[in-house]
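Summary for the steering committee. One of the milestones for this cycle was to obtain a three-dimensional model of the protein with NDP bound, which we needed before selecting residues for the alanine scan. The sequence and ligand used are listed below.
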Amino acid sequence: MSAAVQPTPRPTVTVLGLGPMGRALASAFLNAGFTTTVWNRTPGRDQELAARGAVGVRSAEEAVAASDLTVVCVVNYDAADSVLRRPEVATALKGRTVVNLSADTPARARGTAAWAAEHGVRYLDGAIMTPAPTIGTPHAVLIHSGPQELYREHRSVLDALGGTHTHLGEDIGRAAAYDIALLDIWWTAMTGYMHALAVARAEGIGAQELAPFAKGIGAILPPAFEEAAVEVDNGTYAARVNPLTSAASTMAHIVHTSEAHGIDASVIRSAEGLARRAIGLGHGGDELTRLVDLMGRRG
Ligand code: NDP
């Protein structure tokens, strides 16, 4: 008599938070064939997912009790903590794993990890570096930190989110630290671009007229990032191309042009101020990379 072949149980996963990103995560898990339980603070956001087979439940505690792995993706850690730290949720989570993909600071990630350790919850932190539509495609980029063993254990589930996953180390705050540094680039660069478009408009140049040239500036950045990184790690700041005296002079032209049009120049003024401070300290012959040292210093 031959033994009946038991079907392999489908992996289970829970997603807490159904904003654009939470929905994209849940959708990718469904596409991968996982039994996916979903919950959101405001009811009704799970309808499309439920139509595709997701299990919608009424409470966060029911949601986390349904799977060994819960992925949290809400606006920030105030929101994540307000869900996870409710006593009934904490009790249901005991012995299970949480992967928190909400964005916040490294300190908040460490705080939530300490709470998780106290409550017997296994905890990984992470950040998503690409927009919601990339999830489930090769273009997704996710970074993770926390216990390597735990990451290995759940890697096959996380892989359903597509793209590239990088475990950055056991320090639970490390993914958030990368996220903050990378978002710093994004937001200061995009604010600079918005300012440039305002100045261009005041000079009668349409945003779409400037855009092809703006893309040219963007294309110069990747090698400049690499070169600057080497200089900063080596502490070799002497100017190769553009000394701070010259950089500050160019920045001043932007400030003058903006202010002549009544445009707020506070972002570029702040950059010029840093460059002038470095020059005042005798670093006028150095590259802009000197500012990395200067910004960490008071006075
Ligand atoms: P939001 O950042 O707007 O977050 C919305 C989610 O947070 C909803 O589920 C909302 O619930 C929930 N939420 C807000 N406040 C609370 C609270 N006090 N208690 C419980 N839940 C709360 O949308 P996204 O889904 O886009 O982003 C989620 C996370 O993903 C964020 O940290 C974001 O930075 C990150 N991210 C998003 C990207 C994107 O492309 N969207 C790209 C990369 C990262 P409710 O519906 O009840 O308001």
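Key point for the committee: The chain has two domains: 12-171, 206-296.
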